[in-house]
Design a protein that fits this description.
By secondary structure, this protein is α+β, with helices and mostly antiparallel strands. 15% of the residues lie in helices and 25% in strands. It starts with a helix and ends in a 13-residue tail after the last strand.
């Protein structure tokens, strides 16, 4: 997909702060994984606490609540923290929610920038967590952090 078409589609998501000057598309469209898996570093499968158990979820509790998502990410070593400010030696993720219903997640890179998977579409790199707030994903609801154990470099921009 051309970068211009991806940008046009992304701008239709209702993310009022996501302008072309604050993000870059970093992958091609991929339906295999979702934003929750991407935040966890898993590009092999979708993460979702669906009640039928058809999708991967790392804990027995299967609820679409902020608390359930926090518990799921605790299995990866994350703990709640108060801000998304960069901390040397730590990796952070953020959960976005609308009325306590998680709608999106993003992961902080070693550079301090953030990376998101937009639905079934592309991954993007963005400067702050707040730029993907909006009608589609809600607002920043919870930051989590863990000690960084391996590199998480900036993803390369795809060839257009």
């Amino acid at each position: 997909m051309s970068r211009n078409l991806a940008n046009d589609r992304i701008e239709g998501l209702g993310l009022r702060n996501l302008r072309q000057d604050v993000y870059q598309v970093t992958s091609e469209e991929n339906r295999r994984y979702n934003c929750f898996a991407w935040a966890a570093g898993d590009v092999r499968r979708r993460w979702e606490p669906d009640l039928r158990g058809e999708r991967f979820w790392p804990i027995a509790q299967r609820e679409y609540t902020l608390e359930c998502y926090v518990e799921a990410f605790k299995t990866l070593g994350y703990q709640p923290c108060s801000t998304g400010d960069f901390e040397e030696g730590y990796q952070k993720v953020v959960i976005y929610a609308d009325r306590n219903l998680p709608a999106h997640m993003a992961r902080q890179l070693e550079s301090g920038r953030w990376t998101s998977k937009l639905g079934n579409w592309e991954d993007i790199r963005h400067e702050t967590p707040e730029v993907v707030e909006g009608t589609e994903y809600g607002k920043v609801a919870q930051f989590l952090k863990r000690r960084r154990t391996e590199p998480d470099p900036e993803p390369p921009l795809p060839i257009s």
